Amino acid sequence: MSAIDHDAAPLPAPAQRRWPQRLRAAGMRLVLTTLAGLMLAAIVHIVTILLIPVLSQRDAAHAYRELGAEGHAEIVPLARGSGALPALQEADPDVITAVCAYDLAAGPVRVLARTGTLPLGLTLHRQGGGVIYAITDRAAIRGVLEFLVLTEGQYDERVANDEEGETSRELRVVSDTQRGLIVARVLAKRPSDRGDAEALAGGVRCGPAD
Amino acid sequence: MRILDLAYILGLGAGLGLVSAHWAVAGRPAVGKVEVGSWMAWPGSGSRGVDPYMRAYLARGVHLPLGAGEGVELIAERSDDGAHLDGRCRYRLSGNVPTTRGWTLGVTDGAGRPFALPLDRASFSDAEIVRGEDGALSIVAAAAPQSGNWLPLPAAGRFQFRLRLYDTPVSSQTGETRAANLPRIARLDCR
What we know:
Chain B: Pfam families: DUF1214. Chain A is of the alpha+beta class.
């Protein structure tokens, strides 16, 4: 290592030779930051999709949460501007829909529907989306459809209180959310059936089980 | 420079993530869709295990989908030749409907709302149509009056046919239904 060798060290490259390197570095950084941005976008996408049902205030569970307070299902409007309630979207105009909201905090809810000649379907929609249970009037016994909606805890309690050795005849449906909607739909095949259909759908009773 | 990079990553991530999520659930999502001939169905929408995209779509409006054991809704946006359904054309719906307790066939806009037409007939139910000797279905959908079972259409613009089957064994296995078991949608002519 002599002073001469030291002097022969390469001089700094001219400015024009550094540009490609700078460009390459900048390109690399752009690619890396874009990749990081895309990964973040995927996370934001998934979180948004999962949060919409949780945070939505415009869904059916919020729109119809006051219905059924009088112990029977109430008919919901199908067209806008027909009352204070928001209209049901994508609904069949030939079907009468009645809704009863439940809150299991106060105890299990008993649903009782009398069947007629028109097709009737009962469904349980939990808050946040998903149909927990669906039953049609073909399952009716002597013209009556009856079941109990309860939470997991209330179900266990009821099973524990059942008489030893006896099978309970009541139909018990476990809801994994405390709140939800009981929906009764009756198909009015002819315009003249609408009165009967409204009476059937609005006549579905829902109230405390005991 | 670091701050610029970070701002770029956050802007791209939040912007693209939110826009893509909005786009994915603005209409009925492609996830979970079952196609049979010209008809589309989302049989998972009425089940306990509804997929997150359908759940998000349903939560964005006042929707109460048919339960899996209650019935199924089939939507057609195109005729059998693949063209979009348009009010300027005439269509014939013919063939069979799967076994049900009852069905309705309606004409709606893209959001599922019936059109406000001068004639108050937005749909047919199974009890309302006149059938041929063989019991097969034949409905003509057109803007101008037709003989037989006539379903009025808007004068122009896109529309959908919605076939709702109530209390049918098809509801839980829509994907396995053959196209021959559902009505065919033939385009007759256009203005």
